[in-house]
Every structure is written in C-alpha cells, then in structure tokens.
Amino acid sequence: MDDGNIDAELDAEAVEEEADRRRKAEPPPGLSDKEFLEWRSPRAVSGNPTRVDNALWHWLVRTRWSAYQANAIFGGPSSCGAGPMWCFDRFGKSETRLPDGRVVHIGGEHEDHYDADFFIYNDVITVGGDGEIAIHGYAPSVFPPTDFHTATWVDDSIIVVGNLGYPRQRVVGSTPVFRVATDTLSIDRIETVGDAPGWIHNHSAVLTDDGRAIILSGGTLWRGHDISMIENIDSWSLDVGTGRWTRLTARDWQRWTMLRVDRKPNRLWDTRQELWRRDHPWPDQVSYWKFDDAPDFEALAALYRIGDDSPMPAQGCAYNVFNTMIDGLKVRFTEDRIHVQAIVEGRLREDRLSTLQRRLLVTLGRLDASEWEIEEQ
Hints:
With 377 residues, the protein is an alpha+beta fold. The chain has helices at 3-24, 33-39, 55-63, 67-73, 79-82, 268-279, 297-302, 350-368, and strands at residues 50-51, 94-97, 103-106, 109-110, 119-120, 124-127, 133-137, 150-154, 157-161, 177-181, 187-189, 193-194, 199-201, 204-207, 213-217, 220-222, 230-231, 236-239, 244-247, 254-260, 314-315, 321-326, 329-335, 339-344, 372-374.
C-alpha cells in the first residue's frame, strides 16, 4: 500500500471518528425508570409490519451507542439477568439508499453469541433525508432474525437474499429470499426454484444491467450443525421475476478442512501473536502465551509449504488468509480458532496433493502439540 492510500484511509477514519463523536454528544432522552425498562429490550411483535417507534430507540439509532454503553448510561439492569438491550450498533446489517432519500436498514446482529447482549434483529429501520426515523418490527414467521444478508433495490422493492441467523433456524441447502416493499415496508417470502447456493451469508449481490437478475458470489456456506462452514467459490443467478436460481459456475477446485482431532481451539493465532511480539519488542511488553511448551516458530515458518525449498506464503487480503503457488496453481489457506480451510484454484496431481496434506497435518500437529486430521466432507 502506498503512502497516498494510507493517508486516505487515515483521513477517512478521522472523519468517521469525528462523526461518531458528534452523534454520541446528543444527550439521552428524559425517560423515567419505568419508561426506560418498557423499551430497554428487543420485543416480539405480530403484524407485517408493526411500528415500534419510541424515544429511546430513536436516540439509539441516531447515536449508535452499544447495548452495554446505553444500558450503563441509564443505569439499567445487567443483561446477564435482564437479557440483551436493544441497540442499533450492529454487524451484518444492510443499508440501502432509495431514490426518495431514505436509507433502509435491515436486521443485523449485536455482539457475538457468547455475549449477554447478543441478539439478531428482524426489523426494518428507515432514516429519511430529513433525519426522520421509522422503526418497523415483524412477526418471526413473516421475517426471521436476519444478518449478513444482501439487500438489492429492484424497482419498488428491496430483495433480501441469504442469512446466517440463529442455528435453530438454518436449513441445509435452502437460500432464504424476501421482498421488502419500499412503500409499505411489508415483507413477503419469495418462493424459489432451481439450483440454489444453499444457506449462504456474508456474500455479495449485484443486479444485472437489465434489472432482471441478481448475481450472487463469495460468502460462506453453512452445511450442517456438525460440519464446518466453507467458502463459496461459485456464482449463482436469481431471476427476480420468476424466482428461479441458476448456477453459473461449478469450479472443479480441490478443497479440504483441517481440525484438531479433539476439536479444541488451535494455537495458530496465539503463535502468530507471539512471533509478532518477538519481532516487535518494546519495554515492559507482556506475553499472553498460556501454554506450557514454547511456541514453535520453526513449524510456523514451514506451514503451508509443500517442501523446504518452497516459497514462504504471502498474507492475503485478510489477516488470517495466506496464499502460495504450488505447481503453477494458487493455493489459499484460511485460519480460524477451530479449523484451517484450504482451497486449490485448480487440481494438483494426486501425489502432490497427498504430499501437501501430509506435511500440513504434521506441521499443524507440531504447532499445536496435538494431532490434526482432515474433516470428512
């Protein structure tokens, strides 16, 4: 990245920080304890839609305080006992700007599943060009909790595709699709046919030039409760008029997932953090290494290489993605706390694939002081 790009990013961050500071400078609404508790938490509603406007939620939309911060401002009860507090500080929320100046915010989640304020929303919030806010809730049977979807404006509707959602609502092989009417904000499920991508989330969607189809690509596919999610490597088309899915690509790429045999979290993040700490020392630096044996930096240097003379992998577009070239093919490895996923953009010879996989399992086992295996697909 050149200096110009770095400066542009820093300038953008400074602008957003100043905007956030201004938002949060708005004083909270004057609510009694009873009024605060009445609207503190998310609520189930019926109808399609049901207006749920109130002073507290409007203030939270404008200021975007987190649930924990807002609850503290009002001296509310602990979320560990009272349940999550409503907020507008969300991940996986879509924002669609309409020609009339409204911005339509759909769903999203707050925090991760282990947090007391974790919640996946199924609301639609509009903010007009004049700042007017309207909050709409829905019966879960009409519109379930939805996050990490896409929202594409098509004529007088927003087409919502995909979802991560709560584990209990996921259906293997199904791709949820909804239509939000931009005039009434009512929501209808679109029944689809054809070859759908499956339970996809965190993907991208692009409307074709003729406005007749939405092209999906990227993202992650959920395949079942006991199987690891995998990266989506193909593209699909959804005909918005007929609801028919068409698979556009079927890439014949080799891919596999590696995990510890005991399915416990691995040490990859910890080892990389310790390597960074070693290479960037400063006075009074603290180590967070919590294991009895020392981190194996030699094994880390050998990771993702098919041989000792192979080039070191390069970090990809994300901190946990590493790329290398093997026999003229790009091979990508994605790490998380539970598994490592590998994708070959093509097909290695079987003997070369076997050599790579054996070396990977041995090296990962050294790093973790634990046996690894390839998950059954």
